[in-house]
# Entry
Amino acid sequence: MHIPDQTGRTAIITGGSSGIGKAAATELAAKGARVIVAVRDQTRGRAAAAEIGARAESRPLDLASLTSIREFAAMIDGPIDYLINNAGFMTATRRATADGFEGQFGVNHLGHFALTNLLVGRITGRVVTVTSRNYRNAHIDFDDLQWERRPYRPFGAYGQTKLANMLFTRELQRRLIEAGSPVRATAAEPGWAATGFTMTTGRRILDRMLVLGTRLLAQSAEGGARPTLLATVGEVPGASLSSPGLFGVRGAAALAKVSGEALDDDIARRLWEVSQRLTGTEFPLSAGV
# Structure
């Protein structure tokens, strides 16, 4: 896709040291943007920034820690054109974050929710959140968001977080419009991309099939980054979803139809309220601001 000149613009990309995050960072930096790679592992972050080029820098961010998220946000000065909530986490067994959240929900949704609320007052362009096709068959279980009572299903937990990403994008866009902000909230799904990110179903045979399928069918990280770039700099509306054009799996990026529970405004508002309470962060913009 065509990426216009990005000179003078700043992008923050979580998880930007590898995979589609690094690929998107590389493309934006090549067009002149200043890119902040926000990652927990600074050895990998600095190495990635060095590969991306002089316009990239690495800063520490652990999305599994609200303290780290607040420290990162406090270090950011000046306007931010693009916040790309790209980092993703999946685990075969239930693990807790530093704040006691179920790991996938804590990193994939709550961490990005808190980060966005802390930064949105300085964002001038887009908030892009990377989701997955798994959102389509997922459900938000408000009675057990943290998988404390039901048997832990890694794929089910992951799907819930990806649906949460979509609902977050929808409610964020509603709030931005209500506040009179020109910022757009968009979502992107990379399709099937070989990025080093491992999908874990908890079933050994199915996991092996996924690994084999990735080797045979997946597109490159650069291909997987196309929807993110479209959602970031393309002419797309707020609350939209960018996806690979070939059955949502691979190919050129295009707008995709949002479906299922991701369209439910009541669930989106309820999830936002719960997320505010859990993270202790609130949307800072008032109506008309």
